[in-house]
Every structure is written in structure tokens, then in C-alpha cells.
Write a structure and sequence with these properties.
Order of helices and strands: EHHEH
Radius of gyration: 13 Å
Strand content: 5-15%
Largest sheet: 2 strands, parallel
Distance between the termini: 39 Å
Number of helices: 3
Number of strands: 2
Length: 66
């Protein structure tokens, strides 16, 4: 059986972060468990970084300080 390939956009990552029990988080779990092959562009990663550190999201997201 061949694996399914998927391309995730920024919205999926943000939704998974906001709702760890939602469908977007389920999609990420498929990638974590290597049930799908995930493709993500550098632009998507950069957009995600930009979005999660926007001030209006700081009250909605878990503490992301590292």
C-alpha cells in the first residue's frame, strides 16, 4: 500500500494549535505517526511563525516562549 502525500497550509497548523482535539490536529497526528507523507514549504513555515506571534493571538495560544 502506498502512502498518501499531503500539503498543509498555515491555517491547518494554527487550527491544530488552537484546538488540539480538532480535525486539524488529527491531520498532524497522521503525519507524526507516518501515516501520510507531509510536504510543507519554507513560506508556510515562515507564515506560521508570523501568525502565532501576532499580539491578538497571544491570549488564545499556549505559551510559545522557548
Amino acid at each position: 500500500m502506498s502512502q498518501i502525500s499531503a500539503v498543509f497550509d498555515c491555517n491547518l497548523f494554527v487550527q491544530a494549535l488552537l484546538n488540539p482535539n480538532g480535525e486539524a490536529a488529527d491531520c498532524l497526528e497522521l503525519a507524526r505517526n507516518r501515516r501520510i507523507v507531509l510536504f510543507v514549504s519554507k513560506e508556510t513555515i515562515n507564515e506560521f511563525r508570523d501568525v502565532i506571534f501576532r499580539p491578538h493571538l497571544s491570549t488564545l495560544l499556549p505559551d510559545l516562549s522557548v
